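Much of what follows relies on a compact textual record of a protein's fold. An example makes this concrete, so a full record is given next.
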Amino acid sequence: MKKTVQIFSMLLIALTVMVSCKKDTDPADRDFFVGTYSGTITYNDGSKDISDDDGKVRVVKTGDTYNFIFGTGIPDITGVKFQGSGDTYTSIGNGLTGISVNASTLKILVTNSKGTWTANCTR
C-alpha cells in the first residue's frame, strides 16, 4: 500500500511538471491585451475628421479575431487577427495591418478604403 501511494505521488508530481512546462500555449489565447486603452485617437474618411486627445479604445475578443471599439463617433475596426512575438502582437490581414498591441500599449495606424485610424494609447 505504501509503495502504491508513493508511485501515485510520483505520477502526480510528473503530471504537474509536464502541464506547467507546456510551451505551446499562444499568448493571444490568454487575452492579455483585451481591455480598455486610453490616449489620443483619430479618424479621417475624407469627409469627416475626428480627433480625441482623451479617447478610449476597447479591445474585445470574438472567436479568433479581435474588435477595436472606439468612442467619439469613430467607426470600430473589427475582425482583426494577430501574429505575435514575445508579448507584442501585430495585426495581419488585408486592410487591417498597422495595429501593435501588448498588455500596456496600443498603437494603431490603419488605412483602408473606409478611412484612416490612429491611436496612441496606454492602460
In short: The chain has a mean pLDDT of 83.
